[in-house]
Design goal:
2 copies of one chain form a homodimer.
Chain A (H helix, E strand, L loop, with lengths): L1 E5 L7 H14 L4 E6 L1 H10 L8 E5 L10 H7 L4 H10 L5 E4 L3 H12 L9 E7 L4 E5 L9 H18 L6 E5 L10 H11 L4 E6 L11 E3 L2 H27 L2 H9 L1 H11 L7 E4 L5 E3 L6 H16 L2 H15 L9
Parallel strand pairs in A: 1-2, 1-4, 2-3, 4-11, 6-9, 7-8, 7-9
Antiparallel strand pairs in A: 5-6, 5-10, 10-11
Helix pairs in contact in A: 1-2, 1-11, 3-5, 4-5, 6-7, 6-12
């Protein structure tokens, strides 16, 4: 298994990304990580990490990097030797099995679509986001790639989310919910109402509408929504989790007994932080492409990068795309309206 | 000032609602609360609360109640003597100044629209939701009344949110943000991109797109979005805040030192809970109507009801609807596209 890592992307610089690669190969004896970026800088970073380039960590030189704020399509056109562009080119050539990047996620998606193309039957590749819940995890799709969607696209997100949940969460017949503003099928906007009808006849284990509060309950495995709503949810959740911890910290710092109490409860807080830490969830896969890509938060630490590489391995090893194609064929056989091209 | 309270709605029954009314009149010497519902039950509840019906707490008998799960429009048609329907009828007749309800929010909105009608120039009345932030509060509109919107509707939500923020948050020239998935004006779905253009020329203090995480930062006073996205955000936030406290509680209960620590930090936790408690924010106003209504969470406690009555008083006292009309006229003069009828 060979995983390419964009070793220049993200907010924290190559050191952290290289450290993630070192952790990943240590965890997984059959994996080789191909670092993409400036050969000299990466060789130096590997040296400092005490793991010189060798058998299972390789460097492929790429002279350009796409910045976090660059416009995706323009950037991949202007920078043919950018790390992510090189990564997906290697994937297309069969020289790696997947690409992982913590860089500009729009540019990563754009490069993936251009180099790999869409999986047959998929109208809109998307980004799947993983949330912690009271009982495990839930995957939401799409969380940002497709802001204006048709019902058939959302059904395809459901199929892709199921394939992911089967492979990464080890769920049999994952429960699929449609994000709406009431549990009854008649509630929601026009897009959701039409999608509800399609999902009922999709062959998926569709449990109906779910509300925003149900994301965290653990009663659903896959949540379907358009990429605008999904991205807003993701960022609301990140923002709120941060602000709750900030407010709690402010209140605790106001008194000595509270500060002592916080010390005593330190391990409980650490365990809690681990449960809600995005780094535990290993990035967000790009699904619906002729190949496998995983994007990571720009602020990812080494553990998050290593976990993302692990998710990429699992998706490749369990042939996520074959699973998507099989479920999609079954859904489209039941209802031609699920074909995005026809919808 | 006379405020009608639907004293039968909500999940907790009349006792809690009556207790809220008692708190409200104690806090505000010029206020009379008119309790709507079963006269005998309400008189008994008042007696038990030690505040028999009299000068400043009146009862108006209403024989019907709309259940939390009833379909709004059908319910208000089938139950002409329902508490909320009677409330808005009293408002139309000038016998009360505002209506507060913790009952079925869809039915409350439907009764309000039918009895009062829309404010001139407003295409879509909506529900404003208040969130705590690191620095105070923010109002988001719409949080559930209008699931499919046009750009002009969102601009009107911005105007209404500003009037609310001026009166209730005491903000001069409230900062208005458009909820999107990137800060640049070009980011978002089709609705958001078109709304961005209109808001730039609205005369409002428009600061541009904001992201989900910015809701809680305190850097914006009014957040504009369609009612589907707004309702999802509200419920994601409620669900996540609960799950974070649940997870933290689970971790703390696992060890004795953590339990002791939690005791020591008890007051800090209590202050934190007060900061994020929806009961502090006094309900969600219905804006854009010929009159004033405030809806409360079905689970509202007495304090939440009293605070909602306080918000209703403030909105009436400061003539929120005159303020909305003035800002709307100014915005529509600048750009005829802001007229919802024309858009």
């Amino acid at each position: 298994m060979r995983i390419a890592l964009d070793a220049m992307g993200g907010d924290r610089g190559p050191e952290v990304l290289v450290a993630g690669a070192v952790q990943a190969v240590a965890a997984s004896p059959a994996t080789t990580v191909v670092l993409l970026g400036d050969r000299q800088r990466l060789a130096a970073a590997l040296g400092r990490a005490g793991a010189p380039a060798g058998d299972r960590i390789e460097i492929v030189h790429a002279s350009e990097v796409i910045g976090m704020d660059e416009a995706p399509f323009e950037a991949i056109r202007r920078k043919p030797d950018a790390t992510v562009v090189r990564g997906f080119a290697l994937l297309r050539e069969g020289r790696v099995d997947a690409v992982v990047s913590a860089g500009n996620s729009g540019a990563t998606m754009a490069a993936a679509v251009r180099c790999l193309g869409r999986l047959a039957g998929i109208s809109r590749p998307g980004i799947a986001g993983v949330y912690p819940t009271l009982k495990g995890h839930v995957v939401m799709m799409d969380v940002g790639a497709n802001v204006d969607c048709r019902p058939a696209h959302l059904v395809q997100f459901g199929v892709m989310g199921c394939a992911f949940a089967e492979i990464v969460f080890h769920r049999q017949r994952p429960r699929v919910g449609l994000l709406s503003i009431g549990e009854e099928g008649g509630k929601g906007n026009t897009l959701v109402k039409k999608t509800h009808e399609l999902l009922q006849n999709s062959g998926l284990n569709y449990i109906g509408n779910v509300e925003g509060r149900d994301i965290f309950s653990g009663e659903v495995d896959v949540i379907v929504c358009d990429g605008f709503v999904g991205n807003v949810c993701l960022k609301v959740s990140e923002g709120l989790a941060e602000v709750i911890l900030t407010m709690l910290g402010e209140e605790i710092r106001k008194s000595l007994p509270a500060r002592i109490g916080y010390r005593l409860a330190g391990r409980a807080f650490a365990r809690f932080r681990k449960r809600v830490d995005y780094a535990e969830y290993g990035g967000a896969p790009l699904l619906g492409l002729n190949g496998t890509g995983v994007i990571c938060h720009g602020r990812s630490n080494a553990k998050a990068i290593a976990n993302a590489i692990g998710v990429a391995e699992e998706l490749v090893a369990h042939r996520v795309n074959d699973r998507i194609s099989a479920m999609l064929a079954s859904a489209q056989e039941r209802s031609p309206a699920m074909d995005g091209a026809a919808a």
